[in-house]
Design goal:
This protein is mainly α and 258 residues long. The chain has helices at residues 3-27, 43-52, 54-86, 88-103, 110-117, 121-145, 149-157, 162-199, 209-218, 222-250, 252-257. The chain is built from 11 helices and no strands. α3 runs antiparallel to α4 (88-103), α8 (162-199) packs parallel to α9 (209-218) and α9 packs antiparallel against α10 (222-250).
Length: 258
């Protein structure tokens, strides 16, 4: 069996082991099945929620928010991160701002986003952008600074312009760190949007998978709540897998040594 097949098998085996332990503990009532229903008991609930369209609609709403916010943050985040890694004046100028904003609990600024952008899609997308922007910036910067200085010196000695330094040295050299930042940012974006939908005071229905989860809790529908949590976990796994596939396509030499 090739390594790639082993990787696929082990990546599937890990979640299955966790679900198996959960199933055993619930079925044997080591944990209270009223509050921790066995995973197999949730299958019918998931089918009902999918067939009704409620689950699919809420997942789609949250995914659209996450992907739009991610794209808005990713492009300028990578560009600024490359500039901070290449040029120390840019790094010194922006680092205090980046570290300060990055340290602020993101859900704490939700009221500010609501004041600025109003109750709607704009505020939800804005808080995703603010939450992940500097995460991408700092990972990109670290990737550039980790490049052997010899490559930059050679490029400059050969007369490379600033744009060529970006495209031929900083960008390819920092790609592994950039994708690490992308993976972290995507997971964090999902976390933030679910939390934001928890706190959203809007009465609009449907309103995202976070809204679906908190509504299930308020109505004491424990099975629906766990279905929502499992769906969030599955989405996070799929998004991470997609980014890994893209990384392997763009960096085949790195895939061989990973």
């Amino acid at each position: 069996m090739t390594r790639r097949r082993w990787e696929l098998l082990l990546s599937l085996l890990g979640p299955l082991v966790v679900l198996g332990i959960w199933e055993f503990l619930s079925r044997t009532q080591i944990i209270d099945p009223r509050f921790w229903p066995a995973p197999t008991s949730l299958i019918d609930t998931m089918r009902q929620q999918i067939s009704s369209g409620a689950l699919v609609t809420n997942v789609r709403i949250s995914l659209v928010r996450v992907l739009i916010g991610f794209m808005i943050a990713a492009v300028p985040g990578v560009i600024i991160g490359l500039a901070m890694g290449l040029y120390w004046p840019v790094r010194v100028f922006l680092m205090p701002v980046a570290t300060a904003i990055y340290a602020i609990p993101k859900l704490a600024i939700l009221p500010l986003m609501l004041i600025v952008f109003g109750v709607g899609e704009s505020s939800k997308i804005a808080i995703i952008v603010v939450s992940i922007f500097f995460l991408i910036v700092l990972n990109t910067m670290s990737g550039v600074m980790g490049i052997d200085p010899t490559y930059r010196d050679v490029a400059q000695n050969l007369g490379a312009s600033r744009w060529q330094l970006f495209t031929t040295v900083a960008w390819p050299g920092a790609l592994p760190a950039i994708f690490t930042g992308f993976r972290l940012a995507m997971g964090f974006a999902l976390l933030v949007i679910v939390g934001t939908e928890f706190l959203d005071g809007s009465k609009r229905e449907p309103n995202g998978i976070g809204w679906y989860i908190i509504r299930s809790w308020n109505l004491l529908k424990v099975d629906d709540l766990f279905v929502g949590l499992l769906v969030v976990a599955f989405i996070a796994w799929v998004l991470n897998l997609l980014l890994e596939v893209i990384e392997r396509r763009l960096l085949p030499w790195r895939a061989e040594v990973m």
